[in-house]
Design goal:
The protein has one domain. About 80% of the residues lie in helices and about 5% in strands. It contains one helix and two strands; from the N terminus they run H-E-E. It has one helix at about 1-85, and strands spanning about 95, 100-105.
């Protein structure tokens, strides 16, 4: 009877050791996957940051383009009158913002 108990304990111990070994292997795999996912998140965060910078630059360029269109529209509206009056030069006013940079041509 004692030998039978010892045999069962030995089998249970062996089975538990095998299960622990498998779990350690799985834990290692999961750590690798977690590290990969963290690197992926960092890469996407950097990509989002870069795209936000590009968005700001494009918005600034769009603002300049809108202002240029206003200037062209103004010139096109004034030009025919100046030609009718025989004037060769157009009056030009430039507006500046609080930083002292040119914001638009009026």
């Amino acid at each position: 009877m004692f030998n039978l108990c010892m045999l069962n304990v030995s089998r249970a111990r062996s089975s538990l050791q095998q299960e622990v070994s498998e779990l350690r292997g799985r834990q290692s795999e999961l750590r690798g996957e977690a590290a990969y996912l963290e690197a992926l998140v960092q890469r996407y965060e950097q990509r989002i940051f870069d795209l936000e910078e590009v968005e700001v630059e494009l918005r600034e360029k769009l603002t300049l383009l809108e202002q240029a269109c206003c200037a062209v529209a103004w010139v096109n509206s004034v030009l025919p009158r100046h030609h009718q009056q025989g004037l060769k030069e157009l009056p030009l006013l430039i507006a500046f913002d609080e930083r002292g940079t040119q914001t638009m041509v009026v």
